[in-house]
Amino acid sequence: MMRARRCLLLLGMLLMLACGQARADACTVAQTNIVFPSVSSISTTDVYANANFKVTCTWSSFLAGLLFPNATVCLYLGGGDGNSNANATIPRQLANGSKRINYNLYTDTSYAPAKVWGGWSGTDTAANVITFTLTKSDNVIGSLVQNVNLYGKLNADATLSSMDVSSGNLTFSSNFGSTNVLMRYMFFLTGTANCVLGTSVSMPFTVSAPVINDCTINVGTLVFPDSSLLSSAVRSTATLTTRCSLNTAYTVTFDAGNTAGNTYALRKMIGGPSNELVTYTISNTLDGAGLGDGNGGTTVFSGTGTGATQARTVYGLVPPQQTPAPGNYKDSVTATVSF
Question: Half-sphere exposure of residue 181, counting CA atoms within 13 Å on the CB side?
Fold first, then answer.
C-alpha cells in the first residue's frame, strides 16, 4: 500500500513539472508587410505580390518535448480596415480615403475562392483558417519552423479602371491588427488540438499598392490602295486608340516620319526599284491640317481619359503628283501620348 501511494505521488509530481515546462514553450511569428508593385489604373492584367510569414515553435526542455511533442498553430484573418464591409472578404479591399480597389490574399497560386486566407468568425471566409501541426519527434530542446507562403492578387477590374487617381499616384492600403488578424497555438501530447483553447499572439501587418495614372496608345497601319497613276488624290484611313486613366488629360503628337528629309509640312514615302519618293499627308480630319507636334500649323489629338478605350480616325492623303516607278512605298511615323 505504501509502495502504491509513493508511485502515485511521483506521477503527480512528474505531471506538475511537465505542465510547468509546457507553459514555458512558445510559438512566435515573423510577418512582413505585403506590397504590390505599381499598378496602372488601366491595367488589363491582374497584379501579384508574394509574402512569407515564418512561424517558430520552441520546446524549452526535454520533458516538455517528451510529454507535449506536438504544437498546432492556427492563423486567422479578417477583412482589414480597408474594407467597406468588415465581414465581406471576397474580395477584400485596399483604401485611399473613400476610394477602394479589390484584392485578396491566398494560400496557393490557384487563386481560387476556397484558397482565400480567412478563418475570422463572421466573415465570408470563416472556414478558411490556416492551420498546421509541428511535431518535435526527437524530444530534444530546440525549435521547428513552418514557412507560410501567401499570394496576393490585385484585380484588374472595372473598379480599378474607373478609379480617378488625379494627376499623380495614390497609395491604397489595408491594415490588419488586433481586430482582424491573430495567431493561436497549443502544445499537446496526441490526437488533435483546438486552437481556440490555445495561446493568442498578435501579428499586425499592412497590405498596400501604389496606383498610378497611365495611358496606352495603339495606331493601325495606314495602307493606301494600289494605284497605277497618281493623277488624282488617293485616300485611306487608320484607327488610333488611346486608353487613359479616368480624368487624365492627354495629348497625342506625331513625328515627321523616318524618310530622310521629311518635315511636318512635307512627308514622303520611299520605295520602288530606285528609292523614289511619294508625297503624302496625315491629318485628324478629311484632307485637314497635318498631324504633328501642334506647332507650325500642325494639329494633335487631345482629350481626357475615361478609363476605357477611345478611338479616333487618322486620315491619309496622297495628293496628285508625278507617278513614280511601280513598287511598294513606305514611311514610319511615331505617335506619342503625353499625360
Answer: 19
